[in-house]
Design goal:
Elements lengths: L1 H6 L7 H7 L9 E4 L2 E4 L7 H14 L19 H14 L13 H19 L7 H15 L7 H5 L15 H16 L5 H4 L5 H9 L6 H17 L4 H19 L5 H13 L7 H11 L12 H14 L4 H10 L6 H16 L3 H19 L4 H8 L5 H9 L1 H18 L3 H17 L1 H38 L20
Antiparallel strand pairs: 1-2
Helix pairs in contact: 4-5, 4-6, 5-8, 6-8, 8-11, 10-12, 11-13, 12-14, 13-15, 15-17, 16-17, 16-18, 17-19, 18-21, 19-22, 21-22, 21-23, 22-23
Family: Belongs to the phosphatase 2A regulatory subunit B56 family.
GO biological process, one term: signal transduction
Subcellular location: Cytoplasm
C-alpha cells in the first residue's frame, strides 16, 4: 500500500526539478518526500496542486467508503476540525501495512513514513482531540491487530538448554521502533476516559484478548512490559471480560506446567494477578480458590521456577491474607512438588515456606506439621550446606518458633535424630554451629523432652548397630557356605570384598 503511494510521488530528476517541486510538496509539519529523504517542512508554501494530486493518489489506494477524499499523508493541522476524524481513520488504514524488519535496508523509506504517521496518531490521541466513534474504535483495533498479532519463531535457545532459564542477553525485536508506538496508541485508547466500554467490547472481544495473551510469550522484555500494562487496563476497564481473562490465563499456566515448561511471560502474568488478587472480595469465591490450588500452586513444578518465584510467592501470600486457612492447601502442594535433587530450588522453596508459615494460624499449622517437619528433617541433614543452613534459619523467625514451641511434643521427636547426626557428622562448620544453638534452644524450652528424645535416639542407634552386626554375621556365613560349593560352568561365583577385580 505504502509502496504504491510512494511510487506515485514525484521522482528526483534534476536539481532544477527539485527546486521547482520543493514548494509544491510541503505542508504544515507534513512529510516532504524528495528523492529518498523524508523531512518535516512548514505549511507556508502549501499549494492546492499538491493536495489535489495526493488526493487522487490516495483514492487509488484506499476505499472511498472509508476515507472519502482524505489524503493520509496530510497533517492534522492541514485539515479542518470536521475532517480530522476521517483523516484519523485514513492514517489508521495506512498503518495497517506491515513490513519485514529482518533486512534493515529494505523499504526504509516506507518504514519511515509509517513511523512518522504512527507518531502523529499518538500525538492526536494524546491531545484529546480524537472522538472514539465506532468506526474509529474498529480502525484502532484493526490496526493494532494487524501490527501486533503475529507468530513467534521457535525459541531455539530455550530448546537447546532443555527449557531451563539461561543468563544470555534478552532478545530484542527488530520491529520494536514500530511496535512500541502501536502499543502506545492502544494503551492511550484503552485508558481514555471518553471511551465507551459497551461499544469497544464488540471489538476488544474474546478473540482479541486471546491473541493479546499469546504475545506474552515474546522474548523481548520491552514488549512483555507493555502487554502487562495493557492487559491490566483491559481487566479494569471491561468488567464483562474478567472471568474470561482469568480462565484464559489459567489455561496458559496449565499448558506451561503440564505440557511445555517453557513460556517467557509467566512472571508478567503473575504480576498482573498480584494486584487482581488483592482486589478480590471476601468471602473468596470457589473459582478463586480453584485458581490458587490448580493454577498457582502447580507453578512450583517447573525447573525454571526461580525466574518467577518472587511474583508467585506474592500472589500466594495475597490469597493467604484474604483467607489464612488456605495455607494448608498451599503447604500440601509445595510438599507435593518439593525438589529432592535440585538444591538451589530447594533453598528457594524453604524461603517461600517461611513466608507461608508466617501467615499460618496455629490450628492450620497443626493440620500439616507432621508431613512438613518430616521434609524439614531431610533438609536439616542435607549434605548441601546451603539447604541445611536455610532450614536451620527457620528458627530465626519468631512466629515459626512460637508455632514449634506450642507443638514441641510432636515436632522435636521428628527432627531430633537429624539434629544429633548434624552435631556428630556434618562437614560444614556453620551448619554445625547452628545445630548446636538449636539444641540449646530446645533444652531451654523443655529440657526433659530433649533428654527423652536423646534416650530414644541412643536406643535406636544401639538397635541399628545390633542389626548391622547381625547382617554382617549372616553375610559371613553365606560367604563361607558359598566358598565351599564346587564351581560348575553355570554356577554364580561369590566375590568376597578382598578379591581384586581386574580393570576393564
Amino acid at each position: 500500500m505504502l509502496k504504491q503511494l510512494l511510487n506515485r510521488l514525484p521522482r528526483k530528476s534534476s536539481k532544477s526539478d527539485i527546486g521547482d517541486s520543493a514548494g509544491s510538496h510541503s505542508g504544515n509539519n507534513g512529510i516532504t518526500v524528495s528523492g529518498t529523504r523524508i523531512q518535516r517542512s512548514n505549511s507556508a508554501n502549501v499549494v492546492p496542486n499538491r493536495t489535489n494530486a495526493l488526493k487522487r493518489m490516495s483514492s487509488a489506494v484506499f476505499p472511498s467508503t472509508v476515507v472519502t477524499g482524505i489524503e493520509p499523508l496530510l497533517s492534522f493541522k492541514d485539515v479542518s476540525t470536521q475532517e480530522k476524524q476521517n483523516l484519523f481513520v485514513s492514517k489508521l488504514n495506512l498503518c495497517c501495512v506491515v513490513f519485514d524488519f529482518s533486512d534493515p535496508n529494505k523499504n526504509s523509506l516506507e518504514k519511515d513514513v509509517k513511523r512518522q504517521t504512527l507518531i502523529e496518531l499518538v500525538d492526536f490521541v494524546a491531545s484529546g482531540s480524537a472522538r472514539f466513534t465506532e468506526p474509529v474504535i474498529a480502525g484502532i483495533c484493526k490496526m493494532s491487530a494487524v501490527n501486533l498479532f503475529r507468530v513467534f519463531p521457535p525459541n531455539y535457545r530455550s530448546s537447546l538448554n532443555g527449557g531451563e532459564a539461561d543468563d544470555d542477553e534478552p532478545v530484542f525485536d527488530p520491529s520494536w521502533s514500530h511496535l512500541q508506538v502501536v502499543y502506545d496508541i492502544l494503551l492511550r485508547f484503552i485508558t481514555c476516559g471518553s471511551l465507551d466500554a459497551k461499544v469497544a467490547k464488540k471489538y476488544i472481544d474474546h478473540s482479541f484478548i486471546l491473541r493479546l495473551l499469546d504475545l506474552f510469550d515474546s522474548e523481548d522484555p520491552r514488549e512483555r512490559d507493555c502487554l502487562k500494562t495493557i492487559l491490566h487496563r483491559i481487566y479494569g476497564k471491561f468488567m464483562v471480560h474478567r472471568p474470561f481473562i482469568r480462565k484464559a490465563v489459567s489455561n496458559i499456566f496449565y499448558r506451561f506446567v503440564f505440557e511445555m515448561e517453557r513460556h517467557n511471560g509467566v512472571a508478567e502474568l503473575l504480576e498482573i494477578f498480584g494486584s487482581v488478587i488483592s482486589g478480590f472480595a471476601l468471602p473468596l469465591k470457589e473459582e478463586h480458590k480453584i485458581f490458587l490450588c490448580r493454577a498457582l500452586v502447580p507453578l512450583h513444578k517447573p525447573k525454571c521456577v526461580g525466574s518467577y518465584l518472587q511474583q508467585l510467592s506474592y500472589c500466594i501470600i495475597q490469597f493467604l491474607e484474604k483467607e489464612p486457612k488456605l495455607a494448608v492447601s498451599v503447604i500440601k502442594g509445595m510438599l507435593k512438588y518439593w525438589p529432592v535433587t535440585n538444591s538451589q530450588k530447594e533453598v528457594m522453596f524453604l524461603g517461600e515456606l517461611e513466608e507461608v508459615l508466617e501467615a499460618t494460624s496455629m490450628v492450620d499449622f497443626q493440620k500439616i506439621m507432621v508431613p512438613l517437619f518430616r521434609r524439614i528433617r531431610c533438609c536439616l541433614n542435607s549434605s548441601h550446606f546451603q539447604v541445611a543452613e536455610r532450614a536451620l534459619f527457620l528458627w530465626n523467625n519468631d512466629h515459626i518458633v512460637s508455632l514449634i514451641a506450642h507443638n514441641r511434643q510432636v515436632i522435636l521427636p521428628l527432627i531430633f535424630p537429624a539434629l544429633e547426626r548434624n552435631t556428630r557428622n556434618h562437614w560444614n562448620q556453620a551448619v554445625l554451629n547452628l545445630t548446636v544453638n538449636m539444641k540449646k534452644m530446645f533444652s531451654e524450652m523443655d529440657n526433659e523432652l530433649v533428654i527423652f528424645c536423646q534416650g530414644i535416639f541412643d536406643e535406636e542407634e544401639a538397635s541399628s548397630r545390633s542389626e548391622a552386626e547381625k547382617r554382617k554375621v549372616i553375610w559371613e556365613r553365606l560367604e563361607t557356605v558359598a566358598s565351599a560349593q564346587p564351581v560348575t560352568e553355570n554356577t554364580a561365583v561369590l566375590v568376597t570384598p578382598t578379591t581384586s577385580i581386574p580393570a576393564c
